[in-house]
Give the backbone structure.
Amino acid sequence: MPTAAATYRPAGAGRIGGPCTYPPGPRPSACRRGYDRRHRDRRAKIFVRDGGRCQRCGALVALHAGQGLPVMHLDHIVPQSHGGGNECGNLQTLCPTCNARKAREGW
């Protein structure tokens, strides 16, 4: 029988990267999930490079929550599952709507 950790799926989980394996309750910190300073720095670098705009629709997005704008999604242009890497040339800023649309369309 599967454990609670193996079956827990928050809303939206599994659409892109598979099911969430975190148990119910507060999520682990970003650092414990594998997002360290290099990830934050790369995210900020891509945000500045893209001018704080979604690369599909041109909407303004925020780097962090609480600025009255949708928070940016850092997106792989060529998904890692199709051989894309984490280099800056394969990353782009998307708004949440365009990122969800891209996931539904299958990149």
About this structure: The longest strand covers residues 73-76. Residues 15 and 100 are 9 Å apart (CA to CA).
